[in-house]
Each structure stands twice: as C-alpha cells, then as structure tokens.
Amino acid sequence: MQQVSLRDITKSFPHTRAVDQVSITFRAGEIHAILGENGAGKSTLMHILSGLYRPDAGAIFIDNQPQTFSSPRAALAAGIAMVHQHFMLVPSLSVAENVFLALPRRSPLLVRRHLLSQHIRQLANRYRIPIDSPDVPVSTLSIGAQQRVEILKALASEARCLILDEPTAVLTPAEVEDLFRTLQGLKQEGYLIILITHKIPEVLACSDQLSVLRHGRLVTTLPTATCTAEQLARCMIGDAPLPPLRRSLPQLPPQESSPSPPLLTFENVWSHPLHNRVTLHDISFTLQAGEVMGIAGVDGNGQTELTELLIGLQTPARGTVRLAGQPLVTYTPAVLRTAGVCLIPQDRQREGLALSFTVAENLLLNVSCLAVVAPGFWLAPRAVQRFAARQITRFGITPPSPTQPVSTLSGGNQQRVVIARELAYNARVIIAVHPSRGLDISASRYVHDELLACCSRGAGIILISTDLDEVLTLSHRIYILYQGRLLGPIEPTASREHIGRMMTGTWMTY
Prior knowledge:
alpha/beta, Rossmann fold, six-stranded mixed sheet, 20 strands, globular
C-alpha cells in the first residue's frame, strides 16, 4: 500500500451533512493529521475510510484502484484499521484474548493461554506498547491502559494504514511521548498513520501533513512544517473569535470564617479492597461552596475508585462522609443524587448516555429532572418537549432537535447533552471527570465556562482529570492522587516539575 485517496466523499445524516465533497490523498511513510473542531466531520470521514459507514457519494482508492468497503472487516482485509476514541473491546475478556480476536492468522497453538500471553508480550515489546499483564480482564484496566490495548490490537491486525481517533485523549505527557516515538518508528517502516485530533501542539509535534475540516468541508491540506499554531486555529474556527475562558474564580472565604459548613467532607475514608482495583487510603478533604478542587494524577491511581465513592457506587470501608456538615447514614447513589451530587462521567458514550435514545430522552435520565418535569406518575409529552427545547437552547446543542438520536451527534454536542442534564436542577456538588476529554478548543472552553458559572452560583466542583493544564487552569487548590493516596493540597501556582514528581511518587508530600 503506497497511497490511499478519498475523492469527493459526501455523507449526510438527518438534519446535517457531516462530510461534504472531501478529497484527500494519504501516502505511506507519513503521519497525516486530520484537524478540526468537534462536529467538523473528522470521525465521520475516517469511519467511511475504515468501512463503518458507506458514503452517499464519492469513492475510495488504494494505489489508484477503486475500493468499496461493506464493513470494517472488509477495510481491514484491505489493510486499514481504526483505533476508535470510544473503545471497541470486550470487557469480560483478557487483554490477550482481545488482541487475539484481531490477529489475522489465529494459530490453534495460541489458544493455549501461556503461548497466547507470550505472543502478546512479544507484540507489545516490538511496538513498545506497555502492557502490565496480558491475562487480566480488560474491564479492570484504567482508561489509559484500555487505550493502549486498542492500539496494540490495530498493530496486531497487520494493517498498513492505522487511523487513530484522538489517541492521546487519556494519556499522560510521558505516555504521549512514548506513543509518538512508536508512531515515528512505524512511519519509518512504511506505515501510513492518520491521526484524528483537535490538539494543535500535537499536530505540529508529530505529523508530516495535515488537513483541516470545518463544517464537513475540507479547508486546506498543507505540509505541517509550513504551519503555525495561530494559522491552524484560524483554519479550524474560521473568522469566528475563539470564546474566551471566564477565568475569574470567586474568592473563597477562610474556612474558619465561613458561615456555613463545607458542602462535602471526607474524613479518613478508605475504600474496600477489591481484586484488581486500587484501594483508597485515608482520604481526607473538604469542599467549600464556590470552590473548584482539582485532583490530578496519572490514570490508574484510583480515579475510578474515588469517583465511585463520591457518587455512592462504593460505600466507604471506614471513615466519615458529611454532606453540608451532616454525616451520611444511608450511602447510596439515590441519596447522593437527591442531595444535589451530580456526575459528568469520564466516558460520555459508555457512562453518560443511552445512545439508542433521543436527545430528549437522555435529558430526562436524572431523577431531579424527572421529579420536576413529571412530578406524578404521568410523563406528559408536551412537558418533556418544553424541557428538552429549553435545555437545547440554553446549552447550545446542535442540531436543535429533541427527537434526534443522541448517537448521531458529534462528541462535543453529546457532552453538552450530558452537561445539560446534570446541571439542569439542584447541582450542589459536581463531580467532573475528564470533562473536556476528546473536545476541541472551543468545546473545551464551553465546558470550562459552564463549570465556572456553577461555581460562581455557589456549587462546589471536584475536577478529576489527567489533563494537567485543565486542572491548573480551573482549580482553587490541587490534590495529587497517587496509588490510592491523596497528596496535598498544593496551590495551582506550584511548578510543573514539583507536581510531576508528586504524580510519579518521587516527592511524597502528605
């Protein structure tokens, strides 16, 4: 495979034309970035190339030979594999078993577990993809580790064209550097790497060519070396000014002079030890009204377990949790939700949305919303439509159709649906986990702006993110989560070197 060409590709969905007559040529031995805002058509275009969608018009050519892909399997047979932003793994199977499903030639010998595990380790070492254990279930892995399994699957399939959809969304800076080294090595071996992203610094750091999409149309294709960050930002957003980030955090009163108790208090809280899970040790903090408390850390150090404790999916093994100064006796998600604790989850598609439901139906998946919209037993269609229309307008969800399946929305608009639902009523404590994951500059600033607006109205926010820039930008104070322990607090003005040493355990500050 020397060249892959898309010629006049068009794809429409109800209420929107996602891709409009796009023509791009990709060449072997290069990293070609597809850049654009959420909803620009990047993922749709690559879903067509990988066989997930069929184009309404246009054609795909490999080495000047026309191709028609009826499925991802057909595209894979032609040498094209895609690593999706939202993972395509079987959670109950092990790492080795998931990779085994991608192998083009499945030797019966590999069914023997020790041989399969050995083979997967060899693949991981060859491509320098860190895999702790091939034998653990994928469901027990952190988001970052699952991402690495997806990349290893694509490489194991022997495809020569790899499409990576936002591959760095959940990786630490060190892991991003490792990934880029792997991609550079694959490029030297003649692989074609197509990188879907909205992160301009990463495009400038690793790509050879770039194409910018806006509103489904191709804006330009250029050698990366000729571009600047400012030029690419203008290409992405057009003439519209970038929305400013409202960075004026409200001043917090000293705790001793605060007239009301903290919104949320954890006192020496431990989680139950569970197999293949991080155990939280002696977690203590207070969250005040109007405060953003940032929690940074390398993924897999207890972020999932802490989130489950915060929303009641786990009960503390010991310690005390207080809401507005009162100890929680009954510790369930329903009690916490009723008390105003809401969650913006780390994976909007798996944890935040029912993809087969409409926008209006997803906006009602909250007991607080249901209690207001339908106070009795009857869910009045007109009341549902009024509520959905109000939230769509307030949060700028596009296309503005309550009956649109939420699965057809872009990632940024899916995130707006989640936020519109969670912040509709009675949000006192907001747990925001990777809230801008996979979002472009404009959408990220929108999410941050909404969180800070809630903060200014007196809500407390716990921001759990592996994006250090996000944590430093939004937080009044920062904790570091390392191996189940909460280190800190530290000020957002602390040096990145100091924070990095805490994240890796080389600077133990309790």
